[in-house]
Amino acid sequence: xxxxxxxxxxxxxxxxxxxxxxxxxxxxxxxxxxxxxxxxxxxxxxxxxxxxxxxxxxxxxxxxxxxxxxxxxxx
Length: 75
Known about the structure:
The chain is an all-alpha fold. Helices cover 53% and strands 0% of the residues.
């Protein structure tokens, strides 16, 4: 019991000394109006990744249905 209390106290006190750093300042560019404010948007192409994700999910779901019907045939 004493070991657990000691370990808990050490972890709680050790957590107080851990400090996070501030995030870096974003670079100024034409996307955010030339200021150091938040970056506005960007050109990340998410369309093809989204199609890939939906296709893989549909294939996985189809395989699960196929395996379920193979194990439990109705009719």
